[in-house]
Specification:
With 170 residues, the protein is α+β, with helices and mostly antiparallel strands. It folds into two domains: 112 residues, Ribonuclease H-like superfamily/Ribonuclease H (Nucleotidyltransferase, domain 5, 2-Layer Sandwich); 44 residues. Helix 1 packs across helix 5 and helix 2 packs across helix 3. The chain is globular and about 50 Å long.
């Protein structure tokens, strides 16, 4: 999942920060305010089959590219958290630690994370065995235990194989 945001220069968003430093409640509030006050925003996800086909890094770059190109209007230039996005038809700059150094990157990170967390809540209601409501798809001990017990769900990448996960899972 990747987000892109064009902030409005005259609409301040108080408390905008790196999504990892915010509480879930702060992120929810900021998400709604960002979406309400920005010029444009988009969030794009890549499905597990595509990730398995092209690898997680390439899928991340594709999601970022698609998120930027889904913005209307398109920006003249893009700040990207750490990476450069291939085949982007506008100027761009990779910013190391971008979600701490750029309000636009922080906003995009928050919008993407909240969208993902909300999707995980929906996935939990359709199949509670995996506990997506608690770990949001991250490879916690509980998540790995559920995958070891039940196997992969349709939401799992088949290439998701942390060292602690048994090789017997197909």
């Amino acid at each position: 999942m990747a987000g892109a945001v064009i902030l409005h220069p005259d609409r301040r968003i108080d408390g905008l920060a790196d999504s990892k430093t915010c509480t879930a409640a702060q992120r929810d509030r900021l998400h709604d305010e960002i979406c309400r006050k920005c010029v444009a925003w988009s969030v794009v996800s890549v499905d597990p089959d595509e990730i398995d086909r092209i690898n997680i890094h390439q899928a991340t770059l594709q999601a970022m590219r698609r998120a930027v190109l889904a913005l209307a209007p398109l920006p003249d230039a893009v700040l990207v958290d750490a990476f450069r996005i291939p085949s982007l038809p506008m100027a761009q700059r990779g910013v190391i630690g971008g979600d701490r150094r750029s309000s636009a990157i922080a906003a995009a990170s928050i919008v993407a994370k909240v969208t993902r967390d909300r999707l995980m809540q929906v996935l939990h209601t359709t199949d509670p065995r995996y506990g997506f409501d608690r770990h949001k798809g991250y490879a916690t001990a509980d998540h790995l235990s559920a995958v070891a017990q039940y196997g992969y769900s349709p939401q799992h990448r088949r290439t998701f194989r942390p060292a602690t996960l048994f090789d017997t899972i197909d």
